[in-house]
Amino acid sequence: MSALLQRRRWPVAYLGQSVPLADLAEFIGVIRPLAIVLTATREESARSLVEWPQALSGAVRGGPPLVCFGGHVFVERPEWSTRVPGIYLGSDLRGAVETLEDLLQSVAPSLALG
Fold this sequence. Notes:
This protein is mostly helical.
């Protein structure tokens, strides 16, 4: 997803796998991104994503970023898409990129470079 967004000229910071929510909160406090995309491939990962609002609440100043999510577990176990707070980007990568791009353009039209 990050590569596709970069090809569309959106600034992306890819943090990699297994970033603890506390570290993500610190990053958000410094960078203040427009959006955060969380992914999970297994139920264990999805279970930890349920807690992102509590973990990230102190990091948000001046308005919260969009929080979106996706990944294999949400395709295999659709009920997880209703348990995780935020915007589910769907099961298709290209569709997810388009959805995220539409959301980004709605919150920051001046940054849309595509």
